[in-house]
Amino acid sequence: MTVTSDQNMARKAWLSLLAKSPAADVAHHWAALGLVVEHHVLRSPEVGGVMVRGRAGAVGAAFNLGEMTVTRASVKLSDGTIGHGYVQGRSKAHALQSALVDALMQTDASAAVEAGLLAPLREAMRARQSQRAAKAAATKVDFFTMVRGED
């Protein structure tokens, strides 16, 4: 099976959403789906660390900012579809649920998973971003210069 660029971008988007969403939200929507997924765990959830790199001003030389704790898991569905989950922190359940969602999004169940889990997570993320932007906008200060009349 050949993976197109659009499929790759879509997969990156849902994996990013799952990784950035709070574990409690993912667990809540996963439970609400009520799916019983026959699967085999390829890689049990493991806690580890990754190096985070940054750039000064987004254009400078890259530097090591520090390490971040991540948890990863991999599953294989009964039809052979493989899913992976990487999440920030130590939540093994979050990583396993993310791997299951990744695998399901590559099957015929993708529409149900999109509607019941990913769409609500996406909306919650938009709401958090909007709230954060409104809070930042409330602290905005406009500076202006008055003409002193010396010219």
Brief overview:
This protein is α+β, with helices and mostly antiparallel strands.
Topology:
Layout (H helix, E strand, L loop, with lengths): L4 H16 L2 H11 L5 E17 L6 E16 L4 E7 L3 H13 L5 H28 L14
Antiparallel strand pairs: 1-2, 2-3
Helix pairs in contact: 1-4, 2-3, 2-4
Strand content: 25-35%
The succession of helices and strands, N to C, reads HHEEEHH
pLDDT averaged residue by residue: 91
Residues in helix, %: 40-55%
Q: Can you list the strand order of the major beta sheet?
A: 1-2-3
Termini gap? 73 Å
- Tally of alpha and pi helices: 4
Query: Runs with pLDDT <50, length 5+?
Result: none
Q: What would your notes on this structure say?
A:
The protein contains 4 helices and 3 strands. The model has no long low-confidence stretch (mean pLDDT 91). It is elongated and about 80 Å long. A 3-stranded antiparallel beta sheet has the order 1-2-3. With 151 residues, it is of the alpha+beta class. The chain starts with a helix and ends in a 14-residue tail after the last helix. Helices cover 45% and strands 26% of the residues. The protein has helices at 5-20, 23-33, 92-104, 110-137, and strands at residues 39-55, 62-77, 82-88.
